[in-house]
Amino acid sequence: MGLYVYAVGRAGDDELPALEGILDQPVNRLEQGSLCAIVSECSLALVRAERRNIAANQRVLSALNTQFDILPMAFGAVTKSEAELRLFLDEHQDTLTAQLLRIAGAIEMSLRVRLEVPDPIAYLVERTPALRAARERTFRSRRPPSYDDRIRLGQLCEDALRQYRDGRTAQVVAVVGASCAEVMKLPVREEKEIANLAALVPRAGLDQFEVAVNESAAQLDEDIAFDISGPWPPHNFVQFNPVGQ
């Protein structure tokens, strides 16, 4: 029988709560040395990313994350046998132990910062004299601007948006970072997004983190909105190859 692996943690932690995971199987610990894997029996060689399976995986990780330091595995991590999993824990003991030390006592919070305006480029043009002047030079003639002129103006606007993002992100991190063990900058997902941050926050420091976010929001433009979500397992702060890869 194979094992579905949800996370890696420390051996000797408090007893697990009663949990049902993938295929409604009970969740258990498999201890190996100073480490343990959180697992449930799995008769499937491949666990598909279906809604029911994803929900079961997330439910287990969320419950664990409230009480324990865990290194969440990528969804679908299945090992063929207990022996294979024990070998994985032995071979990667130093890396896994270092990762557990990195996230000790902390959870992950997501902080996304957005410009709540219809058109971010137009917003910046109206507030940036150099961009306004470039736009006027490009369109002042009665003839339509050339392709090269439009490209140059577009590049200026993209550069201005990048600089705006970098500046505002630095302001946010300067304030919020003091309440975090780490802050990681992730790629923005769309034009209106100014910053996409993952914050490693002490479990006991969530209130301070929220205070810092509110303080940062008060310092920025009124058109900027903050969105906090979490707590999550520290996916973005865990770096090692999952079981089976």
TrEMBL record:
<dbReference type="GO" id="GO:0031411">
    <property type="term" value="C:gas vesicle"/>
</dbReference>
<keyword id="KW-0304">Gas vesicle</keyword>
<dbReference type="Pfam" id="PF06386">
    <property type="entry name" value="GvpL_GvpF"/>
</dbReference>
<comment type="similarity">
    <text>Belongs to the gas vesicle GvpF/GvpL family.</text>
</comment>
<dbReference type="GO" id="GO:0031412">
    <property type="term" value="P:gas vesicle organization"/>
</dbReference>
<dbReference type="InterPro" id="IPR009430">
    <property type="entry name" value="GvpL/GvpF"/>
</dbReference>
<protein>
    <recommendedName>
        <fullName>Gas vesicle synthesis GvpLGvpF</fullName>
    </recommendedName>
</protein>
<keyword id="KW-0614">Plasmid</keyword>
